[in-house]
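Box 3.1 A note on notation
Throughout this textbook, protein chains are presented in two layers. The first layer is the amino acid sequence; the second is a token string describing backbone geometry. Keep the layers aligned when reading.
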Amino acid sequence: MTPFGEKLRAMRKERGISQQQMAESLGISNAYLSALEHGHRGKPTWALLQRIIGYFNIIWDEAEELQKLAAISHPRVVIDTSGLRPAATELANRLAENIDQLDDGEIENIINLIDLNTRSKTSF
């Protein structure tokens, strides 16, 4: 499951809406909606994302959060390290080989480290 799929499913369940009802309202197949929720499909198109936001009648922060989750929810990531330092290539390959062995806490630590590093480089 992707971050977007997890949020989408939670929003739908909180409102007591079936996949079939939501799929029909959005003009997509139930199978496609299920695949989005389970992470078998990549991020939705911008147009579909806007329809989902409208369907749930969400605004501002919640809509922005959903858009951010969609942007980071491609289940098959490709990292191009050509032109980067050898250590970057090693990191990408080691993460690809071992990500399934990391527990939630370890993954959260890595995400926090990346966020901390990114914020420190963009701060003025």
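The helical segments are 3-14, 19-26, 30-38, 46-56, 60-71, 86-98, 104-122. The chain has two domains: 3-71, 86-122.
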